[in-house]
Amino acid sequence: MTNKILAILEQREGLIKRSGFEAACTAVNLAKDLNTSAEAVVVGDVISNLNEVSKYGIQKIIHLKNSELANYSSSGYTEALTNLVKEANYNVLILSNTALGKDLAPRLSVKLDAGCAVDCVKLNLSGNDIILTRPTYAGKALIDVKLLSTNKVITIRPNVFKAQVVENSAPVEIIVKEISQVNLKSKVTSFKKSEGKLDVAEADIIVSGGRGMKGPENFHLIEELAEALGAAVGASRAVVDAGWRPHNEQVGQTGKTVSPTLYVACGISGAIQHLAGMSSSKYIVAINKDKDAPIFSVADYGITGDLFEIIPALTSEIKKVKQS
Amino acid sequence: MKIVVCVSHVPDTATRIKVGADGKTIDPAGVTYIINPYDEYAVEEALKTKEKLGTGEVVVITLGSENNKETIRKAFAMGADSGVLLKDDNHRDSLGVAKALAEEIKVQDSKLVFMGKQSVDYDNSIVGQLTAELIDFNCVTVCVKLEINGDKIIAEREIEGGREIVETSLPAVITCQKGLNEPRYASLKGIMASKKKTIEEKSAASYTPTSEVVGMHLPAGKQPGRIVGSDASAVPELVRLLREEAKVI
Questions:
Q1: Taking the model in full, what pTM does it have?
Q2: What does the pLDDT read at residue A128?
Q3: A contact test, residue of B19, B35, B120, B160 with most A CBs within 10 A
Q4: How many whole angstroms from its chain centre is CA B58?
Q5: Cβ–Cβ of B239/A317 closer than 8 Å?
Q6: CA A12/CA A194 separation, integer angstroms
Q7: Measured between CB atoms, which of A115, A194, A309 is closest to B211?
Q8: Which of A281, A293, A289, A279 is nearest to A311 (CA)?
């Protein structure tokens, strides 16, 4: 049978997120390889950047619309999307593995009798089979998975599949489908923003602190460096368990697995659980006074020395070069 | 009310992973197994809920081999009341796990199910949602705060940049994240009592796999990089490398 691919794009506050464009782009590329077409869908109320998907090669986007769907509702989104997929016979669904994607994908897989592969970092074709590579054991090992069902639900790790702009792309056809009745058995009623400006799961640059920071009162050094770099603040498990930093900043196994472009580890020795969660970062900088610390085995650049001198110097140097 | 907690038996997070002889799973030699860390939050939340209600039974369910009994005993030592081992010595995909759990939850006639937000082996973080959909329960994932009043649930779940407040109702599956509570330590009395509690053994509900692991490999190791210096005087060179070589700032 012919594959029909659908990218499910996430919106927040009426804007399709970057991770959504990554899903769109991945769907377009897969469709090319399978010699078929890819369409996209977004669920929400008013969406202001629908046209933008055309830049990524999507030529048709369906907007499932109702004001009750402005915020995520697991039941409402599952029902509206299941109906669409069954009606139009899509059989490969691609989502980004964000908090929303992770929550939604398995629900769709049950409704559609579909195998589900989540957090994929690579999609390859082997004959007619799609082989999905995904990290396990927090990235200590990778597995290749084949979905055996006709219908397939795939989520891709954010920041891994880049959203590439297609030159001279055709304008997108937008189809708005009003959803008359929304299943609100579960619904998000509000959102509490966390204190940090950026989340480690979404950041391009992360500055993390560990036990070498000696106490929560010294984390302003990490925050200042993060601000100079436009980075998110991360933390090791040791400092989270000690109550110095909130849980949502923890990087590593039992925390968040991250792959930013740049990861700066300050006073982190590099326990195996931490390395598992961050060693797929593109570039790693380590600042630690112990030259034998395991973190240096994965670092591209290291400074062995007193971080209380090095971090402030690094912050001011970065401010200086950014101004020039 | 019966409160179900689903637990998994996983390699200790300090394990160095080696690929096994089949090329698809890990080499179990020398690996220590523990209760999945996120499941400890699930056990704690179930116990707290029972204490608040002043009545009820906490039933622990696990899927796997005879060895999983250790993990049930760990939950017993924390205070869980009874356990069920759904036996299957073979690896199952997440949907296969969810089907076995869903069948047993129906047998237990429970309306409230806790589990960790993910197992730290396969890291799928989907078993809770799959199980809930199979038995038409509501489901809140990555839960960091929970209030249950009668049938009404108000929960907070962690998402990028903050927390979503979710309103739903029983029956429900809640998947637990670090921060939801502080799991209690097993008391000596609890450890002694755990030996007397019973574990029922059943064969796990059959299923048809929807996915297959065709291979496992280790990530390409990173080559150690360069030590730029040993004090603040190395900073300008580090910044130059980040700008000109790595081109990341």
A1: 0.95
A2: 86
A3: B160
A4: 17
A5: yes
A6: 16
A7: A115
A8: A289
Task: For A283-317, write each residue's pLDDT tens digit.
Answer: 999 999 999 999 999 999 999 999 999 999 999 99
Give the integer Cα–Cα distance in Å for B22 and B217: 11
**Can you spell out the DSSP letters for B59-114?**
EEEEEE-GGGHHHHHHHHHHT--EEEEEE--S---HHHHHHHHHHHHHHHT-SEEE
CB contact under 8 A, A192 and B169: no
pLDDT tens column, A39-54: 999 999 999 999 999 9
Is A226 touching B (CB cutoff 8 A)? no
Please compute the mean of the pLDDT values over residues B8-28 and round it to a whole number: 96
Given CB atoms, is A317 within the 8 Å cutoff of chain B?
Answer: yes
Around Cβ B107, how many Cβ atoms within 10 Å? 12
B134–chain A Cβ distance below 8 A for any pair: yes
A138 touches chain B (CB under 8 A): yes
Q: Which residue has the tokens 């402005």?
A: A70
Residue A1 has pLDDT above 70, yes or no: no
Which residue type does A318 have?
A: I
What pLDDT, in 10s, does the model give residues B123-137?
A: 999 999 999 999 999
- Closest Cβ–Cβ partner in A254, A309, A317 for B13: A254
> How many Å is the Cα radius of gyration of chain A?
21
Cβ neighbours for B109, distance < 8 A, ≥ 6 positions apart: B2
pLDDT value, residue A190:
96
